[in-house]
Amino acid sequence: MRSQDCTMVLFSLCILGLHLSTLCEGRPLRKRTVSEVQLMHNLGEHKQMQERRQWLQMRLRGIHTAPGRASGEAGWTRRSLLPEELPDLSDLTPEEMQYALNLLEKLLKSKQS
């Protein structure tokens, strides 16, 4: 083949590839099955729950659970909780997570007032 023929074939293949890629428009080539849709839904819920847990753990780091004492008492200093001292939230149910979020919001509102 001559170089001009090779260039023409390559150019034609590029045009064909560009045309085929615009036909798909980012959609799947086949319709998803019910199990694939359910899997994607479950993955989305899992990611959302993980984000909520991380947010809740970040908020819990700023809350002191020890009862208030006078700052003049000997041997007592105020400190923040360390991450390893926080409870593990990975086994909370969605209802328990929502309850904790509501309680945290009430605490934050009362702290701001």
Count of separate DSSP helical elements? 3
Largest sheet: none
Number of strands: 0
Which class best fits the helix and strand makeup?
A: mainly alpha
Helix-strand topology string: HHH
User: Beta-strand percentage?
Assistant: under 5%
Regions with pLDDT < 50 over 5+ consecutive residues?
A: none
Task: Bin the helical content.
Answer: 55-70%
Radius of gyration: 29 Å
Q: Averaging pLDDT over every residue, what do you get?
A: 77
Measure the end-to-end span.
83 Å
Overall 3D form: elongated
Describe the fold and architecture.
- The mean pLDDT is 77.
- The protein is mainly alpha-helical and 113 residues long.
Task: Name some characteristics of this structure.
single chain; 113 residues; mainly alpha; 3 helices; 61% helix; elongated
